[in-house]
Specification:
5-stranded mixed beta sheet; single chain; 7-stranded mixed beta sheet; binds iron/sulfur cluster; elongated; alpha+beta; 486 residues; binds FE2/S2 (inorganic) cluster; 12 helices
C-alpha cells in the first residue's frame, strides 16, 4: 500500500496504480475521454489534468492523472482553480471544430463531452474561423455510422480493435484537424464480431449504431438486466426498452414493447465490459413471429383445453420420452424435473446450431455451443445422441418436445407428440398438442454458463395473454386430468 492524499483525503493506493486508478478506487472523480480501464493509456485528450502539490503549495505542477504513477506522500488536487482553468482550455480546444449538433445526436444524454462542457466550460467556441467540415455520415461498416465532425480523436475505437478484438480493423489517417478515423481496406472491421463495442466506447456521438440511428432518445428508454442466450458464455447485458412514463399512445404502440438496443452489463466473472455483435441483435431472436395459440391436432383451442388433452396423453403413455430444452432456465429445468424427470426418458437437445458463417469460438468471449443453459440441463440428463432414435425407449408412445431444434422426422413413428415452444414453426401444426410458452424477455430466471457461473435475467415485457410460462405449465401438466390449467 502507498499512502497519498487526494483533495485532502488520505488514500491507501495500490503499488503501481496511476493517480486516475487510485482516485477512482477511492471515490474521487476525474474526467477522462481517451482513458479506459480495459485499454492502453495514450494520454492524448489531456482532460484528466490534476495538480500535484509541491513542497511549497503554490509551486505545484499540472499533469495528466491517467498516465501519472502514484508516489508515496504525494498530494493531488483534482478540482483546484488551476485544474479547472486547464480543463476549460482543453474543452475549448476539443470543441473548436465540434459541430455541437447535440439536438440530433443519438449520444445526447450519454455524452461525456456534453457533460464536461457544462461542468468545466459552458461557453461558445472561442474560434473566429469557420469550423473544419468533415464527413457526417461515413458508413464505417454495415452496422456502424461515423460522424467525423463529432470525433475528438481519443483513439479508443482504434485501440479496441488492436488490443481487445485484435481485428486491427480501424486506424487514423492524415494529420491535425484533417485526421479521420477509417476502417482498413481489407474488410477486417466489417468482419470483426465485436465491432459494436466501439459504439459504447466512443465518448461522443461519432460512432453510432445504424439499426438504432434516430430510433429513440436515450432518456425515453430504460435498461433491464438480462443474459444473452446466443452462446454458452451467457454474457450479462442490458436490454433497453421504452419507459412506462414515455409510453406511446398514438404513434406506434408496438414500440412500447420492443427491444430498442442491447448493451453490455459489466460482469468481470463472465464478459468484462464487452459483448459480441450477436448479443446486440437479440431483437432478431426474441422478436421473431410468436406462436400464441394453443393447438390440438393442428386446430387452435383454448389453452385450458390443450392442457387437459396433454394431461390425458401423459396419463395414457406407457413409455414416454422428453427432449429437454438447452434454452430453459434453471427454474424451468427444476420444475420439469419435479414433474417428469423420473417418469420420462429425458435427453437434452440442441435448440440452436451456429448460423452459417457465424464465428464458432475465439479467445475473447464467443463459445461453440450456441445455447445458454446446456450445462444446467446436462447436469440432470444426458445429451441427445447423434443418432436420436437410440434415445427413445422401446415402444415409446409419447414424446414431449420442449423448445426449438427438434427433428420431428426423427421421432419414433406412432408416438404422440406434445410440443412446447414460443415461436411460430411449421411443427406446431404437426404436434398432437401444442402449447405456446413465454420467451426470456417475459419472465425472470437464471442460466448457468459453461464455467458454472449462475446469472439472473429479469422480465422486460408482459407475455401475451394466451401463452403460459413453461415453469407453471410443467407443474400443471403433472397434475391428474381435469384440474384447472395455469
Ligand atoms: S470515433 Fe469516437 S472513439 Fe473513435 S477516436 Fe473518434 S471520438 Fe474516439
Ligand atoms: S459471446 Fe455469446 S453470450 Fe456473449 S454476447 Fe456473444 S453470443 Fe451472446
Ligand atoms: S484521459 Fe488522461 S489524457 Fe485522456
Amino acid at each position: 500500500m502507498v499512502e497519498i492524499w487526494i483533495d485532502g483525503d488520505r488514500v491507501e493506493a495500490e503499488d503501481g496504480q496511476s493517480v486516475m486508478q487510485a482516485a477512482r478506487a477511492s471515490g474521487h472523480e476525474i474526467p477522462y475521454f481517451c482513458w479506459h480501464p480495459a485499454l492502453s493509456v495514450p494520454g492524448n485528450c489531456r482532460i484528466c489534468m490534476v495538480e500535484v502539490e509541491g513542497d511549497d503549495a503554490s509551486a505545484g505542477w499540472l499533469d495528466i492523472a491517467c498516465n501519472m504513477p502514484i508516489a508515496k506522500g504525494m498530494h493531488i488536487r483534482t478540482d483546484s482553480e488551476r485544474v479547472r482553468a486547464r480543463r476549460k482550455e482543453m474543452l475549448q480546444l476539443v470543441t473548436l471544430n465540434h459541430p455541437v449538433d447535440c439536438g440530433i445526436c443519438d449520444k445526447a444524454g450519454e455524452c461525456t463531452l456534453q457533460d464536461y462542457h457544462y461542468r468545466y466550460n459552458g461557453e461558445p467556441s472561442v474560434s473566429r474561423d469557420a469550423k473544419v467540415r468533415a464527413t457526417k455520415h461515413h458508413a464505417l461498416s454495415e452496422r456502424i455510422v461515423l460522424d467525423n465532425e463529432r470525433c475528438i480523436l481519443c483513439s479508443r475505437c482504434v485501440r479496441f480493435t488492436r488490443e481487445i478484438s485484435k481485428s486491427h480493423g480501424l486506424g487514423i489517417q492524415h494529420r491535425g484537424d484533417h485526421s479521420l478515423v477509417r476502417a482498413v481496406e481489407n474488410g477486417a472491421f466489417e468482419r470483426d464480431p465485436y465491432s459494436d463495442n466501439v459504439i459504447d466506447l466512443c465518448p461522443v456521438g461519432a460512432l453510432l449504431s445504424r439499426p438504432f440511428l434516430h430510433k429513440a432518445r436515450v432518456w425515453y428508454l430504460e435498461p433491464t438486466a438480462s443474459i444473452c442466450p446466443g452462446c454458452e458464455r451467457g454474457c450479462s447485458v442490458d436490454i433497453w426498452h421504452r419507459k412506462k412514463a414515455w409510453t406511446l399512445k398514438r404513434l406506434d404502440p408496438a414500440a412500447n414493447a420492443r427491444i430498442d438496443r442491447v448493451t453490455p452489463r459489466e460482469n468481470p466473472a463472465v464478459n468484462g465490459p464487452w459483448i459480441c455483435n450477436k448479443g446486440r441483435d437479440l431483437a432478431l431472436v426474441f422478436e421473431r413471429p410468436r406462436a400464441t395459440a394453443a393447438m390440438v391436432g393442428g386446430e387452435a383451442v383454448e389453452l385450458e383445453a390443450a392442457v387437459e388433452r396433454a394431461r390425458e396423453l401423459i396419463a395414457a403413455a406407457r413409455h414416454p420420452a422428453a427432449l429437454v430444452s438447452s434454452w430453459g432456465s434453471n427454474e424451468e429445468l427444476a420444475a420439469f424435473h419435479a414433474a417428469f424427470g423420473t417418469r420420462f426418458a429425458c435427453h437434452v437437445k440442441t435448440d440452436h446450431l451456429p448460423e452459417p458463417g457465424e464465428r464458432l469460438e475465439d479467445e475473447l468471449l464467443i463459445k461453440p455451443d450456441k445455447n445458454p443453459n446446456r450445462r444446467a440441463a446436462t447436469a440432470l440428463y444426458p445429451s441427445l445422441p447423434d443418432a436420436p432414435r437410440a434415445a427413445f425407449p422401446a415402444g415409446c408412445d409419447l414424446v414431449l418436445v420442449w423448445g426449438e431444434g427438434c427433428d420431428f422426422d426423427a421421432l419414433p413413428p406412432g408416438a404422440k407428440v406434445l410440443h412446447l415452444d414460443a415461436w411460430r414453426h411449421p411443427a406446431e401444426f404437426r404436434a398432437d398438442v401444442f402449447l405456446p410458452i413465454s420467451v426470456q424477455t417475459e419472465r425472470s430466471g437464471h442460466y448457468t454458463n459453461f464455467a458454472g457461473v449462475v446469472s439472473r435475467f429479469e422480465a422486460c415485457f408482459e407475455k401475451p395473454a394466451t401463452v403460459a410460462d413453461a415453469e407453471a405449465l410443467f407443474a400443471a401438466l403433472a397434475m391428474p386430468a381435469r384440474v384447472e390449467a395455469p
